[in-house]
Specification:
4 copies of one chain form a homotetramer. The first copy, chain A, is of the alpha/beta class and about 200 residues long. Chain A contains 9 helices and 6 strands. Chain A has helices at about 15-30, 45-50, 50-60, 70-75, 90-100, 100-105, 130-140, 155-160, 180-200, and strands at about 5-10, 35-40, 75-85, 115-120, 145, 165. In chain A, helix 7 (about 130-140) links the parallel strand 4 (about 115-120) and strand 5 (about 145). Chain A is globular and about 50 Å long. Chains in contact: A-B, A-C, A-D, B-C, B-D, C-D.
Chain lengths: ~200, ~200, ~200, ~200
């Protein structure tokens, strides 16, 4: 039976969305069943309108399904993606997490494989801390945290043992390079493998 | 000139609100000028309606002013309050923090005294981690973090060096006791003192 | 084949030692093969001599084997125990972790089930933060972090989703109670179960 | 009166030592009184001997004074430096911190300005997490945490709001560049300024 992967993410201007789609494509090539789901946007419309890249991204995903609690309950493995916002998870993703108390109280979030991915403009402005703040919640879920560590030589290239991260630069638009794409592929194969084992 | 204190908080069922009001009363008794401001509620109305204590609290503060970025820009000292939500800041407070990029980019959040307070139902379910996740953002602001440590004998009673926290218990309604009230008084006096010194 | 569990711990005055022995006894009752190993003491002799409980404990474990890197390489599941020292792992345990770069560089620490246990005198003086600082290193190992969350009703009693912790009180000698013992039993059964699954 | 700065650091192969000396030189140029103090080496002699750069550094600082608790008690501002070791403070620095319970219990570590600096080989292998794990202890001290944030345009160049960090690269010998040196200068001026204000 195919391993079930939920990729739950928030993206404002498209970087996290690009990372999520890379993860989804690799997972599908590996034979996994994938739910790629963005979370609801809660920012004020005027904030979105003031940023062309943000507005374009909101319009681009408008027709796609939004994440629900059931996507996690269903999954064997879960990848959460969020840009950093002041060294922590974006409020949009946090808002989604905060709605999970129902399935949490029934143990439906536990014993799955979880990991995360993130991005920031500056080199050390949340690339590590955002992932650890995210994992605080996974601890509460009773999730099994499957961070990549340095479990492959390619992890010494992207260099993030806590998950996968991308530095978008001063103009916030640096595209993903080989280092990040390879690290994303490694991450998703790893959580699929361990998610499958945990699912029995 | 009076020291200016902003207390910015999110409260669902009233515990954090009670802590915030204690802080405000003590600060005013110390001669500070205080802005007590709750952040906007972003939870769906049906979630709120399903919980009597939550609904009652939303109604109770409906007429009070909501926090704005200017409240931080104005202040010499800032106290943030939030219940834990899965070991991290509630999305309502995070949503407010995420709107601060304008004043942040102009340096208007820096060089003030900051600390936090929180609550959780279980004894070790976010009493420490929520405060540290909150402080991630204060690091980004260039804020000066004035956690209480064990700078008074009473801190060995409430026992939280990272801020002040309260355990609300299985029914989520344990009232504040002397330990917490004393720790709140100590916290606010400490941030006022250091906030005043930083403000020159 | 029996699941292999390494319990690697530092204890000064005996609390962590008592927690470690409880974990070992429960694991053996579950049919696991257990290595119970304390790490080397690196504190100056005069510091140890100045504290009767510390000296007594050093003497008590003097004849027992000390932890080596091979104990982790050998294991399917690993439990690390340490008292908090200023909100972080005791230097004695950290010194042991810092010697693991050889097996780490060969991937020999990865893909095992890891969790932690701790104690502090005050209620919120490192019960959560010490475990998260410990897990920073497990992320680097490529370990699989199996924190307990609230995966059983008894976790709402001890109340620590990040691991198991004990508050030793002002005189640092409060004995383990049912809440902690039950939580320790739950923790070790959980890491054994997931460690066995990961080991194939 | 000159502001008193203690720079307490551990360095194995010299990177953190170079950062510490840059901080000291800038502080002295600013008129501060500086104590530059490395902590005791506790690694086994054979580990040190097996690494030429490590051995050379141990020999180079052999005649210099080692850090004592009094250096912190004396200071108005304190900068701690450590390489990352698996996402956390090196055991050598942690061992020093663990000896501070005497002055801590008398409140002698509180109300000073503290910040940190670190290095790692990989880009995101502890550049943020090591500093936050270090600050756990500063919270316990009742120290005032003066991280740099983005309080100057140059912080968008080195990119670390939690302190200053350097990526040493695959061969662990990348020298400090302008980005790091500028960030170190900014950090030390900032802690001196706030340390002086706190000292009255």
């Amino acid at each position: 039976m195919a391993t079930k992967l939920a990729i739950i993410y928030y993206s404002a201007t498209g970087t996290i969305d690009a990372m999520a789609r890379r993860l989804a494509a690799t997972a599908e090539a590996e034979g996994a069943e994938v739910r790629l789901r963005h979370v609801s946007e809660i920012a004020p419309r005027e904030a979105i309108e003031s940023n062309d890249a943000w507005k374009a991204h909101v319009d681009a995903v408008a027709g796609e399904p939004e994440a629900t609690a059931d996507d996690i309950v269903w999954a064997d493995a879960v990848l959460f993606g969020t840009p950093t916002r002041f060294g922590n998870v974006a409020s949009q993703l946090k808002q989604f997490l905060d709605t999970l108390s129902g399935p949490w109280s029934q143990g439906q979030l536990a014993d799955k494989a979880y990991a995360g991915f993130t991005s920031s403009q500056t080199a050390h402005g949340g690339q590590e801390t955002t992932l650890l703040a995210l994992y605080n919640s996974v601890h509460h879920f009773g999730g099994v945290i499957v961070s990549p560590g340095y479990t492959d030589g390619l992890k010494f290239v992207d260099g993030n043992p806590y998950g996968v991260s991308h530095v978008t630069g001063a103009t916030n638009d640096a595209p993903l390079g080989d280092a990040e794409n390879n690290a994303l592929d490694h991450l998703v194969r790893r959580v699929l493998r361990i998610g499958a084992v945990l699912a029995g």
